[in-house]
Amino acid sequence: MTYKEIARKYIENNNLSIGDTIKVHKEDISYTGILLDRPEDADDGYIVLKLSSGYNIGIAIDNTKAELIEKGDKPQIGYGESEIPHDPSKQNISVVSTGGTVSSVIDYRTGAVHPKFTASDLVKANPELLDYANYNVKALYNILSENMKPEYWVKAAKEVANDISDGADGVVIAHGTDTMHYTSAALSFMLKTPVPIILTGAQRSSDRPSSDANINLIDSVIAAKSDIAEVCVCMHGSLNDEFTYLHKGTKVRKMHTSRRDTFRSINAQPIAKIQNSEIKINSNYNYSKRGENSLEVNCDIEEKVGFIKSFPGISEEYIEYHIDKGYKGIVIEGTGLGHVPNNLINTFKRATDENIPIIMTSQCLYGRVNMNVYSTGREIIDTGVISGLDMTPETTYVKLCWALGQSENINEVKEIMQSNIVGEISEKSSIKDFLN
Q1: Can you give the residue range of the structural domain that contains 102?
Q2: Cα–Cα separations (whole angstroms), residue 81 to 86, 121, 279, 285, 408
Q3: 298 phi, psi to nearest 5 deg
Q4: Which of 155, 201, 206, 356 has a CB 3.0–4.6 Å from the CB of 351, allowing a cystine?
Q5: Does residue 255 share a domain with residue 128?
Q6: pLDDT (tens digit, 9 = 90+) per residue, 16-73?
Q7: Active site residue ranges
């Protein structure tokens, strides 16, 4: 227990423990809930309760009386591995859980969110899913997505490919939102798929009343049953529970720390809008259709790729470090049209001379890299730096990992990076994409 002196004595004097259900009386009002722990740096003189609504409140303990309602911890949330009903008239959807908020619950002893649900739990916690399909469920990882690694992309790609080979009509991957756009890009390059592969997540954990997990999961299943045989991300399209958007896996990015509509298509429009269990596909979008491609898996990647953000005062040591440490490629997130301070020019030349490709992207996110406009940009081009065109920096990083898995030749890597493999490069930029 991390409560400090005043609150600790209050809890001990009332014979309470973290996890107990208690009622706190204060003047003419009372609150009933589960006693949660608090962070070590929290102010003294308060306790925290989780109410039956799912929300937490802090209560100043002066002039209060506490009453024990039920001793013990909140029962763990989980459903075990009992059989999920099967309907032969419905499509078979594979649900793969990797962890993240969509697969997380509150730890009632600490008040923290942590990954806990399995894929099976996700289905059973959202029984409406059973109206749409049959499910084969598995928990691939149980991590928060900031702990995702390139080697995990490889394992995920192979597992998804196995599910498709075993007859899955579509795949839904429950994933943490922080790095979901990295994984969606990686799977886009690693897999050519005959069926939809949909990544989804949540900004609020599944046991909170404001959770977006339920709608995101249901709409992801609808997308997995659709004709769109691509790797996509399905997430809220507004702050309310009105609709979701389906974004291309290589053109999507998380754009807000907490909003439920955090995911946006960058330099592109969403592939589709899902509302009231119906999917409306963007009529201007050219997509791979179900059954059009045979399953292909190419998981060869190079993990030793650097990712550097340019900033005023950046020194050449940042580039030199990556060269000296044996990095095989570097992505630069430059300013504006693709610029960096001119003191980096010589280190770029050294990287090219040592067969290390450098790819230039932009911190602006929207628009295209064009290093031909200003003199510094032209000097950068002369060093052999490769334009990332209109790819997001994250997709560029993932693609370079994958490209270096295909070839160590810098010219061949350049050709791969500037070829539109899975729709990661737009043919032309549109003001509509920025205003969307």
Answers
A1: 92-297
A2: 15, 8, 31, 40, 45
A3: -135, 95
A4: 356
A5: yes
A6: 988 889 999 988 899 998 888 776 556 788 998 888 776 778 899 999 999 999 987 5
A7: 101, 177-178, 254
